[in-house]
Amino acid sequence: MWYPFSDFDRAFNSFSDLFTRVERPQRMSANTFEVATTLFETADGYEFRIDVPGASEEDLRLDVHDQTLTLSARRVVKPREGWSAHRAERQSFEWKRSFSFPEKIDPERVAARFDQGVLNVKLAKAPQNAPRRVSIGIGGAS
Fold first, then answer.
1. 48, 88, 122, 130: which one has the fewest Cβ atoms less than 10 Å from its Cβ?
2. Do 29 and 94 form a contact (C-beta atoms < 8 A)?
3. Does the pLDDT value for residue 28 go beyond 70?
4. Which residue has the higher pLDDT, 23 or 77?
């Protein structure tokens, strides 16, 4: 049977769902979980500040390869043994995010510090990308 308002109902429900997510971002599913990130560039490298609330150091993984930084994290929320939840709004999540840079990163000079739910990562540009002063000799060309 044909329902003339079915397309309208689908569109309305999509918009309703969108506004619910905008009003309450903490209720997003694990598949759409996003982290807040700030990236700074300095003369010799980059610095990231990444919010990872509820995760521990053991839950974070950081990989650097050539011009890419890949960060992954997970948080597992388990009820205490013998307890039952009356309300469970905190979600377990797992995500992975990669960032690409215009220059290669020196993997030996990457430092990371995790404090109060914020991961600070300092990345140094690879030495071959650093400016180099060339001395100018006097005399004939060889």
1. 88
2. no
3. no
4. 77
